[in-house]
Specification:
Layout lengths: L1 H9 L4 H14 L17 H4 L19 H8 L4 H15 L9 H12 L6 H10 L3 E5 L2 E4 L1 H10 L16 H14 L1
Antiparallel strand pairs: 1-2
Amino acid sequence: MAAEEIKAILHGRDKIEQERIIRWVAESLSLVATASLSPGNPASPTAASTIPQPNVQPPGSSPLHSKDIKTFVNEKNPKRDVQFAAVAAYFYRFECPERKEVIVPKDLDNAGRQARGYGFKDPLTTLNNAVALGYFDRAGRGEFKLNAVGENLVAMTLPGSGADANGGKPRRSRRAKRKVRARQLKAK
């Protein structure tokens, strides 16, 4: 029954989004796909064996993504340094030919230099702030791993529409709102 519900939820979504949802659920439940699990073995759960492996390619084939980090960052258009850190980690984990599961401050600084033309004053602080916001998990001393929240930020949220939640208008302070309201009442 659970499998049917999951199938119904995923039905109609594009393949990439389906794979991302399944990967997020598998990671959040600490499920790991192993070679011993196979669809032909009735004793093994088939759902765990079908967890997608992002951008896995056969040996000898060309890379699936030939973007460089500058192009990728420009497409995602991060607004803050912590968003940039998530974009860089996502690039190194899923888009780059030399995959990196974890990112270190030096990687972030190099990504900044390549994509933006300047590095970070303190990349470790930026990565720690990204951990505090929930985009990364600590993977060891000075190592950070992009988690499902950070992946979803890059894959689903960025690039934003360019408009804020209030339709792209700048936010008004309370004082400014009161002045506008007072003018409206006065005009009546």
